[in-house]
Design goal:
Blueprint lengths: L1 E4 L5 H13 L5 H11 L6 H4 L1 E5 L6 E10 L2 E9 L8 H16 L3 E5 L5 H6 L3 E2 L8 E4 L6 H7 L4 E4 L2 H5 L7 H10 L10 E5 L8 H9 L5 E3 L2 H19 L18 H6 L2 H9 L4 E3 L4 H7 L13 H11 L11 E4 L2 H13 L4 E4 L9 E4 L2 H10 L5 E5 L28 E8 L5 E12 L2 E7 L6 H20 L4 E9 L5 E7 L4 H16 L4 E9 L6 H17 L2 E7 L9 E8 L2 H21 L11
Parallel strand pairs: 4-5, 8-9, 8-11, 9-10
Antiparallel strand pairs: 1-2, 2-3, 3-4, 5-7, 6-7, 12-15, 13-14, 13-15, 16-17, 16-19, 17-18, 18-21, 19-20, 21-23, 22-23
Helix pairs in contact: 1-2, 15-16
Length: about 625
């Protein structure tokens, strides 16, 4: 579905659509006849009324119509009607969002809606509020919320081309195991949500038919091009190229290295190996937003990073930067870090930390989602942890979150640990971005859900992080961003924190890429813009399923869940749909609501429904006999 300007030659057809839509609510012929003149669209007033049409891109059929009328700052949503057979499929929501986008761009501050009585709940769910002064119809008012500065900086005021090059980014820092490659394929689906409103999405995994349509419905997107399954085809192309080179030299394929010009693996590289796709994506004239910067992604977008711009993705380089910045931030404490040449030296350092009663953390130089990071607080836990780590250099740090928190006092000193409330979550993150001019934009602070050291999701929005803790995280995260900008980095980044035992925030790493929490910020921005209000958004990146679901059944189940969540005042956005038929099946979702209790209820609903799948397919116990 795409939205375009109305054409004068379709005035009659659009007028008929409006009347069919009005008749959907059961009005009799006499009433419709009385409305006919008011609802008839005149060809010579289409431009004045800013009339737009939602149409099926394949057939060209008109699916809905809307108008933005008046002169800024006060206007009117004059029409919003949808073809009856597609009511409930998100067409009206997309048209409403399009009108709000246009109104925002033209400087409208308020729009009046004289609503059909049957549509009042629809408009209220999208942020409109009833007001007095209407005539025969209920009157509502909607105030298009301004677009956040960071959204404008991230998207340049345009829609975007999203690249799910998770594995390609990670592969820059070391070879991925087969398990890590599979996990990165699932996680890459989050890239579809890497901006509030993408125009095209390119993914390495094949995604279920109907998934993107569900995203469009929930987030009021229009006309999103999807190119999926490029991960598998990239490997196939490389294998074919290698075999061809082997044949030319009469050598066995297994004994012949790939030719120097063999296409490198990775999503952006796979796109560049397809000239038609490359031309298509570049021809959109929109910003490219990769999950993370790589050489091929820079070549594709025309915006490569200078050498060394990614150096703070290294955990030791990040720690050194934190140590340098910390003296200017009294509410920040930085764990002491040592470099161990290998497992034996790491064991010696960790034993010393354990014997001192403090415990320790051992890390690999690079890793995502908590992989390669282990907390060791006892001698018994030391050997299994070391066996799980790769050979080569390791990092060992103080463990700062054990033990009772220090008493908090109302000292009145801004930005000190003593000001932090007792309910500060253990795991926090700051998200920000450096725009193309090198300016740092703060996005926000989020509460992360971390099981041991494994990331599971995050919550963003009002009250997710206590105000004082958020302020401390934002100030320090912004300072980090200034250093990143000076090093030549451009793009999204985050700084992860743990809350130390003394109440201060301890920065642990920098991620120079999109992340799970960043996706929650994107969805929040879109919900706030299109539905009004100040949403809480929670990402659940790993919801275990009680049974494996093929694609068709998965989409049907997700559609049912979206309806059930809507019934309790929440929005469900499916984020990871490719692992539902894995041996250990799971899905990823984001949940949005305007109140904490509704968000918690939605999470309970989703996790309970996922567990219930196992009961559906459980064998029946017939041992008790029948009656």
């Amino acid at each position: 579905m795409r939205i375009r300007e109305a054409r004068p030659d379709e005035a009659w057809a659009l007028s008929a659509l409006v009347l069919r839509s009005k008749a959907h609510w059961g009005y009799d012929e006499a009433f419709l006849a009385a409305c006919r003149d008011e609802l008839t669209i005149s060809a010579d007033r289409m431009t004045e009324r800013r009339l737009v049409v939602a149409e099926d891109e394949m057939s060209g059929e008109a699916l809905g119509v809307a108008s933005l009328e008046g002169r800024a700052p006060d206007g009117t949503l004059g029409l919003l009607f949808v073809e009856p057979r597609v009511i409930g499929l998100g067409i009206g929501r997309a048209l409403f969002a399009h009108v709000l986008d246009t109104a925002r761009a033209l400087g409208f501050e308020r729009l009046t809606i004289d609503s059909d009585p049957h549509a009042v709940d629809f408009y209220r769910a999208l942020g409109a509020r009833p007001v007095r002064g209407g005539g025969a119809l209920p009157r509502l008012l909607v105030e298009p919320p301004p677009r956040r500065a960071w959204v404008r900086a991230w998207t340049r005021g345009l829609r975007t081309v999203q690249l799910g090059n998770v594995g390609e980014f990670q592969g820059q820092f070391g070879e991925l195991t087969p398990l890590a490659r599979r996990a990165s394929g699932h996680y890459s689906c989050l890239a579809a949500l890497g901006s509030p409103h993408p125009a095209a999405v390119v993914l390495p995994e094949t995604v279920p038919p109907g998934w993107v349509e569900l995203l469009c419905r929930q987030l009021a997107w229009e006309s999103v091009e999807v190119y999926d399954g490029l991960g598998a085809t990239a490997h196939t192309a490389e294998a074919a190229h290698t075999a061809e080179a082997a044949h030319a030299t009469d050598a066995a394929p297994a004994e012949t290295a790939p030719a120097d010009d063999a296409p490198p693996s990775g999503l952006a590289a796979a796109i560049l190996a397809r000239p038609a796709l490359t031309r298509r994506l570049r021809g959109l004239g929109l910003p490219f937003v990769p999950w993370g910067h790589t050489g091929p992604a820079g070549e594709l977008s025309g915006e490569p990073l200078p050498p060394g711009a990614l150096r703070h993705e290294s955990k030791s380089a990040a720690n050194a930067l934190f140590q340098r910045l910390a003296p200017a931030h009294p509410a920040i404490t930085v764990p002491v870090q040592w470099t161990a040449a290998g497992r034996r030296e790491a064991a010696r350092l960790l034993l010393a930390r354990i014997r001192s009663g403090e415990g320790g953390v051992v890390k690999t130089e690079h890793g995502v989602g908590g992989s390669g990071t282990h907390v060791v607080r006892s001698v018994r836990a030391l050997l299994p942890v070391l066996r799980a780590l790769p050979r080569g250099p390791l990092l060992v740090e103080d463990y700062l979150t054990d033990g009772p928190a220090s008493p908090h006092s109302a000292s009145g000193r801004e930005g000190t640990a003593q000001d932090l409330p007792r309910d500060v979550p253990r795991d926090l993150t700051y998200d920000g971005l450096v725009d193309t001019a090198g300016t740092v934009h703060d996005v926000g602070a989020a509460r992360m859900d971390v099981a041991d050291t494994a990331y599971r999701g995050a919550t963003v929005g009002p009250g997710a992080v206590p105000e004082q803790a958020a302020s401390i995280a934002l100030r320090f995260g912004h300072a980090v961003g200034l250093e990143l900008a000076a090093s030549g980095y451009r793009g999204w980044y985050d700084v992860d924190f743990v809350t130390a035992a003394d109440g201060r925030l301890a920065p642990t790493e920098i991620n120079l890429r999109l992340t799970g929490p960043s996706v929650a910020f994107m969805v929040k921005a879109r919900l706030d813009e299109t539905r009004g209000g100040d949403h809480l958004v929670r990402s659940l990146d790993h919801v275990p399923l009680g049974a494996r679901l093929p694609d068709t059944e998965l989409i049907a189940w997700l559609e049912e869940l979206t309806g059930r969540c809507a019934g309790i005042g929440a929005v469900l956005v499916p984020s990871i749909p490719t692992a539902a038929f894995d041996p250990a099946p799971f899905v990823g979702v984001l949940l949005g609501a305007r109140a904490p209790d509704r968000l918690d209820a939605a999470e309970a609903l989703v996790t309970g429904a996922a567990q219930d799948l196992g009961r559906i397919f459980a064998p029946v116990d017939r041992s008790a006999g029948s009656t």
